[in-house]
Design brief:
The protein is α/β, with parallel strands linked by helices. Helices cover about 50% and strands about 15% of the residues. The protein starts with a helix and ends with a helix. The structure holds 5-O-phosphono-beta-D-ribofuranose. The site of 5-O-phosphono-beta-D-ribofuranose (RP5) has 11 residues, from strand 3. 5-O-phosphono-beta-D-ribofuranose (RP5) binds next to strand 3. This is phosphoribosylaminoimidazole carboxylase.
């Protein structure tokens, strides 16, 4: 159900270039096969009421689209870009090379190398071109990191992050309490 919702978001973005709310976070991925992982970023950002757009942008198969996406993101009002890719995962690094916006990379486990190929392709950026890389397949953390970045200049959003942290802590304490009994 959740995946269907994200897929419909994706289709809306492809067919409608004039979303009613300006997206603050761009969620892009190299292939629609990344969607089962990358949907988690959209879901957590939705929980924080952060507007997003979801797009397929491939560094290798649609290089012109990758350039135009990265070069237009800032002026379109995007504040953070989350980029997921698998295998020879060049998308996050290339996007970071083309925009001054913060880029968060999600290594997608997509090949026979168990995601290590994706992780190393994304994390081993040269000095001067940073990509904040999260764990393999952990698009939720990419979304949460984007919320934290936005929270620096948005007190209301930051307060919700604190609340999220408190809830996370309480959930662990409840489980620990149950174990003790
Ligand atoms: C990468 O190649 C994509 O990000 C995806 O993770 C991987 C495989 O893509 P498909 O062959 O499934 O389209 O560019």
């Amino acid at each position: 159900v959740v995946e269907a919702r994200v897929r419909s978001m994706l289709n809306e973005e492809i067919t409608d270039d004039q979303p009613s709310v300006t997206p603050r976070v761009g969620i892009i991925m190299g292939s629609d096969s990344d969607l089962p992982v990358m949907k988690d970023a959209a879901i957590i950002l939705d929980e924080f009421d952060v507007s997003t757009e979801v797009r397929i942008v491939s560094a290798h198969r649609t290089p012109e689209l990758m350039f135009s996406y990265a070069l237009s993101a800032l002026e379109r009002g995007i504040q953070v870009i989350i980029a997921g890719a698998g295998g020879a995962a060049h998308l996050p690094g290339m996007i970071a090379a083309l925009t001054p916006l913060p880029v968060i990379g999600v290594p997608v486990r997509a090949s026979s190398l168990d995601g290590l190929d994706s992780l190393l392709s994304i994390v081993q950026m040269p000095r001067g071109v940073p990509v904040a890389t999260v764990a393999i397949n952990n698009a939720t953390n990419a979304g949460l990191l984007a919320v934290r970045m936005l929270g620096v200049g948005d007190a209301a959003l930051q307060a919700r992050i604190v609340e999220y942290q408190e809830n996370t802590r309480d959930a662990v304490l409840v489980k620990a309490d149950k174990l003790e009994k």
